[in-house]
Inverse folding.
């Protein structure tokens, strides 16, 4: 699989990145450890060499699964993980990184990201200079190779960049969720940051596998996803019906059509989860789809029938409900 440069580093990442939120199990249902491990291994064999995880996914469980799945294959992969908002004091960052290194069974994390800004979800507010200082210390010590941020606004990103080199932004971004394009994407293009798009399939909505009236159990995080609530869900269903003929023309599935559009955006790669090897192998095939300018414009037009109904809040989930 053809690779792309991560920010201003010399690291090469794949346009499709294996996402592992589901591997942590918390917030998901019907996840089998062995099957997820085989999915990661299948992804690697299909050419996906970049894996994204976080300490908060299952309280470290997802990182453990990544460590097990890729044991003995470290020289073939790029590992990205994230420190959560409640661990942003200097000493906490150092401790969190050491714990992630152990769970991932590695000596170095290729991309270490601040998962959410300080103060998120009721966490203590910590000056960004303190957090970045600890990340710079880890980088100087060879514990991490690059620094990234996730879920930051433009102003938060600009402030963080005053204290060190940042090579990536990880925001929610898909055909059905495009707030990043307003001011964050132009900033990333200008400053050569890679956009690691998460929820790139709108948590499965863009696969077309969930029909009208579908409801998730309360234990599934998607039960709180705004896109799965009316009226957005109905608008999404209508949009999917318009996208289907285009996917058929490319002899591909809806999900891979959406991924092909996403990785065609400036400096953007797509983080995609998979529950089983078949899904991982299918996701990898999205890189083979090359959309025409006309089809990119048509996808943009269809997409906006959904995104124009979304409010300015960048968080995809109603976690308080």
């Amino acid at each position: 699989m053809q690779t792309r440069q991560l920010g201003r580093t010399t690291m090469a990442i794949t346009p499709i990145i294996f996402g592992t939120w589901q591997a942590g199990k918390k917030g998901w249902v019907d996840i089998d450890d062995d099957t997820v491990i085989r999915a990661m291994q299948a992804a690697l064999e299909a050419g996906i060499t970049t894996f994204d995880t976080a300490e908060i996914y299952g309280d470290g469980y997802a990182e453990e699964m990544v460590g097990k799945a890729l044991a003995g294959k470290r020289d073939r992969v790029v590992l990205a993980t994230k420190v959560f908002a409640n661990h942003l004091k200097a000493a906490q960052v150092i401790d969190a990184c050491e714990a992630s290194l152990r769970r991932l069974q590695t000596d170095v994390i290729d991309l270490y990201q601040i998962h959410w800004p300080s103060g998120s979800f009721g966490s203590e507010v910590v000056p960004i200079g303190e957090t970045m200082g600890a990340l710079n210390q880890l980088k100087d010590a060879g514990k991490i190779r690059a620094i990234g941020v996730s879920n930051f606004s433009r102003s938060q990103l600009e402030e963080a960049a005053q204290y060190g080199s940042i090579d990536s932004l990880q925001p929610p971004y898909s055909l059905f969720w495009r707030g990043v394009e307003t001011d964050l994407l132009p900033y990333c293009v200008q400053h050569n940051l890679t956009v690691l798009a998460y929820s790139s399939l709108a948590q499965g909505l863009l696969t077309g596998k969930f029909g009208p009236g579908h409801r998730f159990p309360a234990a599934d995080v998607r039960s709180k996803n705004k896109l799965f609530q009316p009226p957005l869900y109905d608008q999404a269903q209508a949009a999917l019906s318009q996208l289907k003929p285009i996917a058929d023309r490319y002899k591909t599935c809806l999900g891979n059509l959406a991924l092909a559009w996403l990785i065609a955006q400036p400096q953007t790669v797509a983080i995609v989860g998979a529950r089983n090897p078949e899904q991982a192998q299918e996701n990898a095939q999205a890189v083979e789809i090359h959309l025409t300018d006309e089809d990119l414009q048509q996808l943009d037009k269809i997409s906006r029938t959904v995104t124009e109904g979304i409010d300015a809040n960048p968080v995809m989930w109603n976690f308080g409900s």
The domain at 4-205+254-288 is CATH 3.20.20.100 (TIM Barrel). The chain has one domain: 4-205+254-288.
